[in-house]
Amino acid sequence: MAHSKYPHIFAPLQVGHHLLKNRIIMGSMHSGLEDVPNAAERLSAYFVERVRGGVGMIITGGITPHASGGKGAKLSELSEVPMHRAVTDAVHAADPQVKICMQILHSGSIANVDEPVGPSPVQSRIARQAPVELDADGIEEQIAAFANCAALAKEAGYDGVEVIGSAGYLISTFLVEKTNQRNDEWGGSWENRMRFAIEVVRRVRIAIGPDMILIFRIAAMDMLQGGLAWDEVVSLAKALEAEGVDAISTHFCWHESQVPTIATMVPRAAFAGVTGRLRKEVSVPLITSNRINMPDIAEAVLARGDADLVSMARPMLADPELVNKAFEDRVNEINTCIGCNQACLDHTFTGQTVSCLVNARACRETEIDIRPTKTAKRIAVVGAGPAGLAFATIAAERGHHVTLFDASSAIGGQFNLARKIPGKEEFDETLRYFGRMIEVHNVDLRLNTRVTADALIAAGYDEVVVATGITPRSLKIDGIDHAKAVSYFDVITGKAVVGQKVAIIGAGGIGFDVAELITHAGVSAALDINIFAKEWGIDFENHPRGGVTGVEPVVASNGREVFLLQRKASTVGKGLGKTTGWAHRITLQRRGVHMLAGVEYVAIDDAGLHIRLNGTPRLLDVDTVIICAGQEPARQLYDALLATGQSTHLIGGAYEASELDAKRAIKQATELAVVV
Ligand code: FAD
Ligand code: NAP
Ligand code: SF4
Asked: The pTM is what?
């Protein structure tokens, strides 16, 4: 019988010779777990948790078929099979209905190897060097490596393989004119540029036989100036179908493209319509992805006929039980991926093992064990920001009696400010999740209650956890008490009036967010696909090459003139998220925000903000100066409690305010909650 709320998600689907129990795939995502010493154990635990959580199929992180394909996990020799076999056995033992496919990924010209290879020596914008051009023998060696890798995947017990032909990796650089400048049979005409992809698929199919699932990941809209034209995408999809692929997965980026495609400022399911167009051209199942983070969005995409399957990658980090919660009508208990990239993609690109900002257990399933406590304690938690919320709900889940206090009238702490920034609307989901967890785990929530050390001591708690957050740093600049100097807190909450000409002191995460808020005009692009398309120069309707060629971005601004300032001489915004900072910088630059580094603050007066810029005096004749100069830990309560001998713990911003972010706050809270 069809599921009453999500009939499309829970309709089984035949893919090749395999029946999938539902339409949600855990999409391919690099975790870094393949490279740790106990890889088999940790990967198995990570995948099994998602299998038990209800996914229909898993696509592993990319595995390279050849040493030139990247420094990460490789499968090119029999000796590398056992680690994979342990994983597939664990997955199949957990649920024989769930399929697991291995992604074969050769990074080509952007591989982190000494001598990357490609069709032509064209350097990617994000690579350190140009690739070495493959000769005919080299091309044959790479195709044979794909086939060999697929054969070993079969040996390892996978149900199928996914060949990635997008994102600027090896196969995609053969497809696109600007990276394939060959004039032999592998370049020039479209038929020749397509040959490498088709030959790889043909040889992989021979290697795995007819029974295993074969998926090809195609760049349906690569967001690249001079990228693939729509007729090329269609032609490739048809050729792949003719070669016997069982499904086509649509992808929407090259890593070097300058359009955000998965960050939180991207509207939910923004690219699914492109998959929908391609679905009309072929008859094999189509998989769509990108910013589909909740079951309702997935259901709508499937119901519209935009895709046959929905791939969710990061949402499976955030909540391994997402599918079961949808099935059991517990959607309000889903810990939603907020698209921040802070603990997943940013970790991948800085060589760290992946995790998740909202779920610190992700990829640490063997280390962080949330098991019932043997000794239930009475615990007071002071502060219902991300740190206090994570601690309180996990400790209560374990069976402790938790009382959670906050001085304000709502849970969330600084997340209540973050959620007001255009493009950060997803932060609401985290507050909804914690609000529900407070109910589910019976946390005794006391809002509008500023607690003191005396009150806590009098109540006789076994443990007190102090998560009182931060206080904004106050500055010693002449004229800091002038009426035009205001705090970011008052600006975001609407208490301060902001003039037409503004200086922002401090260009950290909050300085950037405040600049976004005060220059923004109209509806947030994250909530409207047409505004998003306009801001980033995407033409979804006419689909020029790459979806972007020749389309000028048009960013609306409310006309304020803004100076974003820092003392450091480094590029303004350098410290922002590795995979998202560039997008914030570009947006503000397009709104005309002046970003100044090497600034010394001299005084604030009626004339404006007096600075020295690299030693030279300058007056910024602004009418508002917003202070975003970092934060200090709010530790008075902790210090007072320590003096009494009360068993007390300190977490989140109150523990460490410099470079603190919610990722660190939630991680620290989680680690404490499982041992207290
Ligand atoms: P807080 O969130 O500061 O919460 C502390 C709580 O304690 C408050 O609710 C306060 O009312 C309460 N409290 C204090 N004293 C008492 C008392 N005596 N009694 C009762 N209650 C008390 N981080 C990211 O990782 N990514 C982002 O994109 C991001 N964006 C941000 C955007 C903005 C505009 C802001 C302001 C912050 C942003 N942050 C972001 C930072 C993030 O919100 C903080 O790192 C996080 O909130 C710290 O959590 P916390 O629980 O330690 O403290
Ligand atoms: P921050 O990132 O540490 O930035 C503080 C800024 O203030 C810096 O530009 C710093 O640069 C400046 N500053 C520090 N001391 C100063 C002083 N005495 N006088 C003048 N300027 C001073 O802190 P934040 O912007 O307040 O953010 C707080 C936390 O929230 C951070 O951990 C941040 O990561 C997190 N957050 C993250 C995001 C995100 O998108 N990931 C968004 C918002 C906030 P100079 O020292 O060079 O002047
Ligand atoms: Fe999603 Fe952020 Fe978690 Fe990555 S770190 S999975 S983007 S919530």
From this structure: 0.96
